[in-house]
UniProtKB/TrEMBL annotation:
PANTHER family: MANNOSE, PHOSPHOLIPASE, LECTIN RECEPTOR RELATED (PTHR22803). Coiled coil: none annotated. This is Uncharacterized protein. It comes from Owenia fusiformis (Polychaete worm). Gene3D superfamilies: Mannose-Binding Protein A, subunit A.
Length: 289
């Protein structure tokens, strides 16, 4: 069976469940063990956009919960501990200091290897040995987000909207032409997504993860308003691009051309005919319900 994980489709698991789908509840918090790889700073940006932060560790019970999850996944994960502000002084994302009684450093760690390791990493060796290490913040690893179970959502999670920056985003599951997808987004007081920052570009790659590699999605870029001149549907200037090799190349010279994002090109953009039916990403201001 083709499996497509779309993180933009976060909804609640059941009535009374206060963690979004894909997040795990423990005590008073929700945790997301990401299957995507980012630098420490980019991972933190994603967590904050989802109304949380990189995970801290406040109790032994919480530490044991995370250890168990890492053992089941057998992967290394970024978490919130860091000494970026002052070498050797480890703090959590909110600036509070590490309680050394909770520390789980590996032998001879942290060692600030080559004077360039400032970010906390959960690591696992031999399938069961879980500990902390200091890592190079620019390296790409999976990551753990944490947010309060009582977080008041800024977006309509129950209908598939999730926050990023000051906007809410939703995957439109129905396959539509570009024009129909735009109309669908507008019917929900939104627009097809426009990408004007590197953060939004990362959001696209983090939220569209498909093993069905032909399952492309529409974004808001097209030449419908001015043939041959690609522009965002929301009127934002085209300043950020992520073109595939040989792109942009008009698919319908003299006709209507629209832009898709395809998973098997590492989320690169391609120009294609606007009447092809695809899923789409909508965006709208936070607080819209």
């Amino acid at each position: 069976m083709i499996r497509c994980i779309i993180l933009l489709c976060l909804t609640y698991q059941a009535f009374g469940q206060r963690c979004p789908l894909g997040w795990l509840p423990f005590k008073d918090n929700c945790y997301k063990f990401s299957d995507r790889w980012f630098s420490w700073d980019d991972a933190r940006a994603v967590c904050k956009a989802r109304q949380g932060d990189l995970a801290d560790v406040r109790t032994l019970e919480e530490r044991d919960f995370i250890v168990g999850e890492i053992r089941s996944r057998r992967q290394h994960f970024w978490f919130g501990l860091n000494d970026k502000a002052r070498e050797g002084k480890y703090v959590w994302p909110d600036g509070s200091p590490l309680d050394n009684n909770l520390a789980l450093w590996a032998k001879n760690q942290p060692n600030n290897w080559k004077n360039r390791q400032d970010c906390g990493l959960w690591q696992i060796w031999n399938s069961t040995e879980v500990s902390w290490n200091d890592g190079e913040c620019y390296a790409n690893y999976r990551y753990i987000c944490k947010r309060s179970i009582n977080t008041v959502d800024k977006c309509d999670f129950s209908n598939g909207w999730v926050p990023f920056g000051d906007k809410c985003f939703r995957l439109e599951e129905s396959k539509l032409s570009w024009r129909d997808a735009l109309a669908r987004c507008k019917s929900m007081d939104g627009n097809l997504v426009g990408i004007d920052t590197q953060e939004k570009l990362r959001m696209i790659s983090d939220t569209v993860t498909c093993t069905d590699t032909n399952n492309a999605v529409w974004i808001g870029l097209s030449d419908i308003k001015s043939p041959g001149n690609l522009a965002w549907a929301d009127g934002v200037a085209v300043t950020i691009t992520n073109w595939d090799v040989g792109q942009p190349k008009l698919a319908v010279p003299g006709g209507e051309n629209c832009v898709e994002v395809l998973a098997n090109t590492r989320y690169k953009w391609r120009v294609t005919a606007c009447d092809v039916e695809k899923k789409a990403i909508c965006e709208r201001p936070q607080g819209t319900f």
